[in-house]
Structure formats: structure tokens, C-alpha cells
Amino acid sequence: MLPWFSDGKFPLYLAPMAGVTDVVFRQICKELGADVMVTEFVSAEGILQRDDRTRKYTEFHDSQRPVGVQLFGSDGERMGEAAKKIIDWKRPDFIDINFGCPVNKVVANNGGSSLLKDCPLLASVASGVAKAVGDQVPVTAKIRIGWDDKTVNAVEVAKILVDCGMQAIAVHGRTRAQGYTGEANWEVIDAVARAVSVPVIGNGDISNGADLQKRKRETAVSGVMIGRAAMQNPWVFREAKHFLSTGETLTPVPVEERWELVLRHCRLVVEGGKNGDERQTLIGMRSRLMAYCKGFPGAKELRQRLCQVTSVTEVEELAEFSISRAHAGVAD
Questions:
Q1: What is the domain partition of the chain in residue ranges?
Q2: Given 101, 164, 266, 293, the catalytic residue
Q3: Architecture of 255-327 per CATH?
Q4: Looking at domain 3-246, which of 3.20.20.30, 1.20.1250.20, 3.20.20.70, 3.40.50.2300 is its CATH number?
Q5: Does 119 qualify as catalytic in the annotation?
Q6: Buried b / exposed e along 43-82 (16+ C-beta atoms within 10 A)
Q7: What pTM did the predictor assign?
Q8: Which of 17, 89, 120, 265 has the fewest Cβ atoms surrounding its Cβ within 10 A?
């Protein structure tokens, strides 16, 4: 068993999210209580071509462990080679295979959730990576419950993956056709957890401690994965753990503390940015900043102004504006 599931542990994973779960955001979530990290997904072909841009997605700090690097692709042998390269670069705690991404660009190349429609190819990919890696590090997988509501096959897929050597499976409770709409189907997640012998991590609609407690109590999952809720509220990990242990809901994080974290995030990203290009870094941060400010006083105006920021100084000025609005009791 993976050590983070031993002794009755119920780990909280930070879900891998492209353009979101970079090394800085993972560090923030780790500090706030996330137990297990997974990198943004990375192309196996990009790794094999030694593309510097691709390789950066595999970077992590030792303080973030346990951390897995997530790969996508459709050629098991090539993916196995890529996994070995990653292990040589910086030994992660596990390699994760993406069988769940719904993005058209990935699906069109037989990656991500497209493999849910082709179980023989899915098995070839999973076994190819597992055989290449051997006993160096565990290999896990992430899936959706099916391609669409007519082909919900997560239980079948999970059994195949276990037979191919996967040591844990994360299940997002939506089909590829759903994208991120509708509700996650935790009945299917539970069925998967009861059907296989490896830990199953449930993913979908976990946004607070009550959600976590409900899924822990009512399903057979061994842990949960939190994604979109963490984008606007990385404190969700701390809050959820507190609720699980005490049954109490923590008081909301003050707006000053929220802005302190937002500004720290900006500064860390700028410090680690390519060639110190603050303008390009902040342009790339805009969508993240807008996610953070959801629910802030004056959020509508904040979003409009955050769409235009090009420096940390501008974000600092917006923080002062937002905090003053909060003190004045101004709502969105």
C-alpha cells in the first residue's frame, strides 16, 4: 500500500489542473493542509524530446512530497520511456497516468479520457508504464466514470487498471461529455472503490468539510481529491481537516489574510518566472487572480481591474482597494 494511505490515513489530494497546479500553487496548498500533490499533466512526447518547457512541469520541491508527476499519451512504450526519464531527473513519489482529461486537444490525440472508449489501448498504456517503471516508484491512474452517460464503465476500467499494475486510482465522478457541468456521481465512485483492491480517491464537488465528511462516511473511498474549490479557496484543505476532526466550521479567512496569500503567490511566481518578465507573468496570472477574488467585497469591479494588471504593484493597489471596501462594509 502507498504509505500515505497506511494506518487509517485518509489523504486529501490536490487535483492536477493544467495552468493551475504549478510548483508555487502546490506549495501554498501543501502549507494549508493538502497531503498529496500531483503536477499539471505533461506530454510524454514532450518529455522524450527533452523540451525545456515540458520539463518544467515536472519540477517540484521536496517539501511538497509525496508528489506524483502526471503523464498523458497513447503509446505505452513511449510513455514508459518518458516515465523513466522523469524518475532519473528527480525521483517523484509516484507516476500518475491521465485517463480523464476532457480537453479536445488531448482527446483528439488519443490521450486523456478518449482511452475510456478503447480499453485494450488503455490497458496497453497502463501496463507499458508499469512495466517500464518496475519497482522504482508506484504507478497510479486518474479516470472519469465514462465517456458519456451511455458508456459509464469506470468499474470495468478500474479492474483493468489494477490488473495492469496501477496501485491507486483517482475517479472524477463525471463523464467526459459532462466536462465540469452537472453533479459528480459518487455512487459510481463508491462502486469503483468497492470493486478493486487498491485505494480509490474520489474527486468531484468537494468544497468544504461537510462534503468531505459525507463522502468519507458514505462511500468506500480511501481519500479525496480537491480541484476547482482550491483554486479560489486553498484554505479548503485546512478547513476540511478541521471539520473532519472536530465537526466545527472554521471562521472565514479574513480578507486581509486572503490578499496576503494572493500577493505572496504573485511575488513567488514573478521570482520564478522566465527572465524575470513581470508583465508576462502577471498577464498569465490574471485568471488565477480572478478565481481568488470570488466573494471578495467589490468583486465585480475587482475582476474588471484584475483583467488588466501587469505588475505586482497594481495587484497591491487593488488589495488596498478591496480591503478598504471590506472595512466599509461594501458588498459586490
A1: 3-246, 255-327
A2: 101
A3: Orthogonal Bundle (1.10)
A4: 3.20.20.70
A5: no
A6: bbbbbbeeeeebbebbebeeebebbbbbbbbbbbebbbbb
A7: 0.94
A8: 120
